[in-house]
Amino acid sequence: MTQLQKLSLPCLPMLPVALALAALAPLAQAQSLVELYASARIFDAAYQSARLQHDANLARADQTTAGISPTAGLSAGASRVNVESTAFPAGGSTRFNTRNATLSASQPLYRPGNWATYEQGFRQVDLARAQLDAAAQDLIVRTSQAYFDVLAAQDTLAFVRAQKEAVNEQLAFAKRNFEVGTSTITDSREAQARFDLVTAQEIVAENDLRVRKIALDQLVGIGESQPRPLALPVNLPAVVPAEVSSWVQQSEQSNPAIQQARSNAEIADLEIKKAEAGHQPTLDATLSYNFTQNPSTTALAGVSSRASTGNVGLLLNVPLFAGFSTQNRIRETLALRDKALSDLEGTRRSVSQNVRTAYFGVQSGQGQVRALEAAELSSQSALDANRLGYQVGVRINIDVLNAQSQLFQAKRDLAQARYNVLLGGLRLRQASGTLSAEDLQQVNGLLAR
Question: Taking a C-beta distance cutoff of 8 angstroms, is the pair 294, 304 a contact?
Answer without folding.
Answer: yes
